[in-house]
Design brief:
The complex is a heterodimer of chains A (268) and B (283). Chain A has 268 residues and is an all-alpha fold. Helix content of chain A is 78%, strand content 0%. Chain A has 14 helices and no strands. In chain A, helix 4 packs across helix 8 (132-156) and helix 9 (160-168) packs antiparallel against helix 10 (173-184). The two termini of chain A are 30 Å apart. Helix content of chain B is 80%, strand content 0%. Chain B has helices spanning 5-40, 47-54, 56-89, 92-107, 110-121, 126-133, 147-171, 175-183, 188-199, 201-216, 220-225, 233-242, 247-271, 274-282. By secondary structure, chain B is an all-alpha fold. The longest helix of chain B has 36 residues, at 5-40. Chain B has 2 domains: 1-40, no CATH class; 55-282, MetI-like fold. Chain B starts with a helix and ends with a helix. The chains are: A mainly alpha (268), B mainly alpha (283). At the A-B interface, helix 1, helix 4, helix 5, helix 6 and helix 7 of A face helix 1, helix 3, helix 4, helix 5 and helix 7 of B.
């Protein structure tokens, strides 16, 4: 059967492509274990000295710390703004609302280099260049649309009559929000918070423009390390980043699975 | 009644307002300012745009960008189609594994991925050493500091973005149409080319446009894997702003890029509900 053969071949090809997608990142692991002081594959000997350097170097530690602070603040702000906005647009439910939604998703589709120009141009006269406030604000604008999307997806499966029922039984707006709406969209809010965290934690292009010396995030330090292309500490940092990514991925898929188990079977 | 529709809509807008205000003030405002700069800096008029016709270097950069983006789109969508097809038509357990792999690669930081390619593709990188080791090549292949390296890095980054809309599109296909085609005597390949492929056209168009749009503004991979030899618009813009301080040229290129992206998004929205892509891409 020709169809069967073609399909089988395509399946092998697809697995190869998936290997191509995931495998290259693994090279960071052996490189990070090299005993040499420059970027190289270890030959028989392994050493943890670059991890040691990563976790004792003041520069790398401060970058970890700064990235974490900025990403946490961004995630908190973006989750609040994005969730409120999604609930608002869900209540409004009009053509104008949908137009506003499309507009608010713009930060996701405008090329990062243009966003970088925009923030740079705005922040220079405001004195926000190279400050935590500037980076958090910029990252919040970029990350909130992700929360808007995930919460809107959750809201699409929420029956508005539940809200009406709660109101007509005498619950206030605030109580309804806290006890009825928010619990049922929690998976979307949580997923949004994680996405927002990652968006900020990984962000490099805008960061390159609006930070200089005093705020030096992890991607910024990685970028420098990659450009200089000598110090294997970058490889150790890459390994740590991949591990963090995997942890977040697992957390997110667990949330999604629990959500799917509790809600009606949605899209795959 | 305390929950009248009008009050509901009013309170809805109140919730939208904070984020809307933030985007207008911090994002829309300066972007409009950049568009204005493109026709006022260094002097009022269309001089910056006219330079497109006269400057060889600008023309070369635009041409490089369009060429690299087009090739990236072609390969990403072709590869993505293969993966999406295998996912939709495979057994459930395979499908979950495949989706996990796509999503994991989607999540790995672009810097980590670019770094990995740097290690793999260098003159003394793993790929060259392996090829030399089994005796296929005697001279290392130049994978980096050229378009080949940029293309490998970009296709690798874009494949997941191609898979997701294609997957969404393939999942909506009525499989009875395929069975009908087979039972009417068409061969497997006839059915694929004349029934299945045309049915996935909306997904193909959406995936192509999405990948092309994202490629247009791509900065990290071309800047690092191109090693300064493959200058694309995004990197050129950053040089104009941070090094040569020519805001007018940078703003003109940004305006071109922005309108290009918005125009393509508009075309894309004709083929596919954008929410299915953006919703599906991250959820």
């Amino acid at each position: 059967m020709r169809k069967g053969l073609a399909e089988a071949l395509n399946r092998y090809w697809a697995w190869l492509l998936l290997l191509f997608l995931v495998a290259p990142a693994l090279i960071a692991l052996p490189v990070s274990l090299t005993p040499k002081g420059f970027l190289s594959m270890p030959k028989g000997e392994y050493s943890l000295r670059h991890f040691d350097k990563l976790f004792t170097s003041e520069e790398w530690l401060s970058s970890f710390w700064q990235s974490a602070v900025i990403a946490l603040a961004t995630s908190a702000l973006a989750t609040a703004l994005g969730t409120a906005c999604a609930i608002g647009l869900w209540r409004v439910a009009s053509r104008l609302g949908e137009a506003v939604r499309a507009f608010l998703l713009l930060p996701l589709v405008v090329p990062p280099i243009i966003s970088a120009m925009a923030f740079y141009r705005l922040f220079v006269p405001m004195g926000l260049i190279d400050t935590y406030a500037g980076l958090i604000l910029a990252h919040t604008v970029l990350a909130s649309p992700l929360v808007l999307i995930t919460v809107s997806t959750s809201l699409a499966g929420f029956d508005p009559r539940l809200e009406q029922a709660s109101r007509s039984l005498g619950a206030s707006q605030w109580t309804t929000m806290r006890r009825v709406i928010l619990p049922s969209i929690r998976p979307g809010v949580l997923a949004g918070a994680i996405f927002a965290f990652i968006a900020s934690w990984d962000e490099i292009v805008v960061t390159l423009f609006i930070s200089k010396f005093s705020v030096y995030t992890l991607p910024r330090r990685m970028w420098n390390g990659i450009r200089e292309n000598t110090d294997p500490t970058v490889a150790a940092a890459a390994v740590v980043l991949i591990s963090i990514t995997l942890i977040f991925f697992l957390a997110q898929s667990l949330i999604a699975r629990r959500h799917r188990a509790s809600a009606s079977p949605g899209e795959a | 009644m305390n929950g009248s529709p009008l009050a509901r809509i009013g309170s809805g807008w109140l919730l939208v307002l904070p984020f809307l205000a933030l985007v207008v003030a911090l994002f829309l405002g300066p972007i409009v300012d950049i568009l204005r700069l493109s026709v006022t800096d260094p002097e009022p008029g269309l001089g910056n745009y006219a330079a497109l016709m006269t400057s060889d270097s600008l023309a070369r950069i635009l041409w490089t960008t369009l060429r690299v983006c087009a090739i990236t789109t072609l390969f990403s969508v072709a590869f993505g189609y293969s993966i999406a097809y295998a996912m939709v038509h495979g057994v459930r357990r395979d499908r979950n594994w495949m989706l996990s792999l796509v999503l994991v690669s989607f999540w790995i930081s672009v810097l980590v991925r670019t770094f990995s390619w740097l290690m793999l593709l260098g003159r003394k990188g793993l790929v060259n050493e392996a090829l030399a080791g089994i005796g296929i090549i005697s001279q290392p292949i130049e994978f980096m500091r050229n378009e080949l390296g940029v293309l490998i890095g970009m296709v690798h980054y874009m494949i997941p973005y191609a898979v997701l809309p294609l997957l969404a599109s393939m999942q909506t296909i009525d499989t009875r149409l395929v069975s009908a085609s087979r039972s009417l005597g068409a061969t497997g390949s006839q059915t694929f080319w004349r029934v299945y492929l045309p049915l996935t056209r909306p997904g193909l168009v959406a995936a192509s446009l999405l990948v092309f749009i994202l490629s247009l503004g791509f900065y990290v991979t071309p800047a690092i894997l191109g090693g300064g030899k493959v200058l694309m618009v995004a990197e050129y813009i950053s040089v104009q702003i941070l090094v040569t301080l020519r805001w007018g040229t940078a703003a003109m290129l940004a305006a071109l890029m922005l309108f290009g992206v918005l125009g393509l998004l508009f075309v894309m929205s004709r083929f596919m509900k954008l929410s299915t892509i953006f919703g599906g891409a991250r959820a």
